[in-house]
Specification:
Blueprint (H helix, E strand, L loop, with lengths): L1 H11 L5 E3 H14 L11 H7 L7 E3 L2 H16 L18 E6 L3 E6 L2 E6 L2 H4 L7 H15 L1 H4 L3 E6 L2 H9 L5 H17 L2 E6 L6 H8 L2 H7 L18
Parallel strand pairs: 3-6, 6-7
Antiparallel strand pairs: 1-2, 3-4, 4-5
Helix pairs in contact: 1-4, 4-9, 6-9, 10-11
Length: 245
């Protein structure tokens, strides 16, 4: 891990515009080994692998923006890596302790896991933005927040997320997208997943079955309490610095 971190740090801080393909492939190989412990990181090798594999090892190439951003995600993770990694739990995905629901609306967003939940009302600079952010972006925001809010419970676990947005389901499971704004948000999601060693899978749930998360995202808290009287009476507080907007 330390060797990979040092190589990435030198590469990203190099004044050279072009780099030997052999050196890039060496870093890819080291990071590929790291994914044996943190499999979610494989998605952030895909761009580099497709860009540089098959090229002459002695050729010199520039580092693409996507490759640079992916390497930065790895650098931050490796810098915080504590030298140990737990094996992911073999518990079935449908265990109630290891699944959560999220949703977004034009009012705000939120998520719920068991009896605990969080809620965010969109700030004015989001609701008044022109052109507006895509619904896929807004639906991804509570997923990122959930990995922070529920991190103690999600750490070293395989986790199932339920979403009623098909685009989000595809983006999370593929760990990639062609939309730059969403890709930037996805990198934050994957970086947090790497830090807590959480393997996240997403499945689609129809909106009529995602009623509690839907109520949270619309600010309909009284309706939420009627649907499930056992949920906490107040949401978990979200620090403004966590809002990835």
């Amino acid at each position: 891990m330390l060797k990979a971190e040092k190589k990435i740090f030198r590469l990203l801080n190099s004044h050279n515009k072009f780099h030997k393909v052999r050196n890039l492939l060496s870093i890819i190989g080291l990071l590929n080994f790291c994914t044996k412990c943190v499999p979610v990181g494989r998605a952030f090798l895909a761009h580099m692998y497709h860009e540089y594999s098959g090229k002459n090892p002695n050729a010199h190439v520039s580092l693409s923006p996507n490759a640079r951003q992916d390497l930065y995600v790895w650098l931050v993770f490796l810098h915080h890596f504590n030298g140990t990694c737990m094996f992911l739990s073999a518990n079935p995905f449908h265990s109630p302790e290891l699944e959560f629901y999220t949703d977004s609306s034009l009012w705000g967003c939120g998520g719920i896991m068991g009896k605990t939940w969080f809620q965010v009302k969109w700030p004015t600079h989001i609701t008044s933005r022109s052109p507006p952010l895509s619904m896929a972006f807004l639906e991804l925001v509570p997923v990122v927040l959930a990995l922070y809010v529920f991190q103690d419970r999600l750490s070293n676990k395989r986790v199932l997320l339920w979403s009623d947005n098909m685009a989000v389901v595809a983006i999370i499971n593929r760990k990639t997208t062609h939309t730059p704004e969403i890709m930037a948000l996805l990198r934050k999601l994957v970086l947090q997943a790497l830090k807590i060693n959480c393997y996240l899978t997403c499945r689609y749930v129809p909106t009529y079955k995602n009623t509690m998360a839907d109520c949270i995202s619309r600010g309909l808290n009284k309706t939420l309490f009627k649907l499930n009287p056992q949920v906490s009476r107040s949401p978990i507080a979200i620090h403004p610095s966590l809002l990835p907007l």
